[in-house]
Amino acid sequence: MKKWIVFGISLCTTLLLAGLAFIFFVVAPGLPTLEAVTDYRPKIPLRIYTADNALIGEFGEEHRDFVPIKQIPAVMKNALLSIEDARFYEHGGISFIGAGRAILADLRGGFHQGASTITMQVARNFFLTNEKSVERKMKEILLTYRIEDALTKDQILELYMNQIFLGKRSHGFSSAAKTYFGKSLDQLTLAEAAMLAGVPQNPVRHNPAVNFEKTKQRQLLVLKSMVRNGFITEAQMEAAAKEDIKVIKGQQFDAHADYVAEMVRQSIYAQYKEDTYTKGIRVYTTINKAEQDAAYEAVRRNIMAYDQRHGYDGPEAHIDLPADEDERDDAIDQILRKHPDNDKVLAAVVTQASGKIVKAELQSGDSIEITGEGLRFAATALTDKAKAGIKIRPGSVIRVMQDAKKRWAITQIPEVEGSYVALNADDGSFRAMVGGFDYNRKKFNHVTSAWRQPGSSIKPFIYSAALEKGFYPGTLINDVQLSETSDSNLRWDPRNDDGKYDGPITMRTALAQSKNVVSVRILKAIGVEQAKAWLPRFGFDKDKHQANLTMALGTGSVTPLQLASAYAVFANGGYSVNPWLISKVVDGKGVVLFENKPPAKAQEESRVIDARNAYITDQMLREVVRSGTGASATAKLGRRDLAGKTGTTSDAVDGWFAGYAGNVVAVAWMGYDDPKSLGGREFGSTLALPIWIDTMRVALAGKPETARAVPEGISNAEGDWMFNEFLNGAGVRTLDMGDAPAATAPATTTAQ
Question: Can you give the pTM of this predicted structure?
Answer without folding.
Answer: 0.85
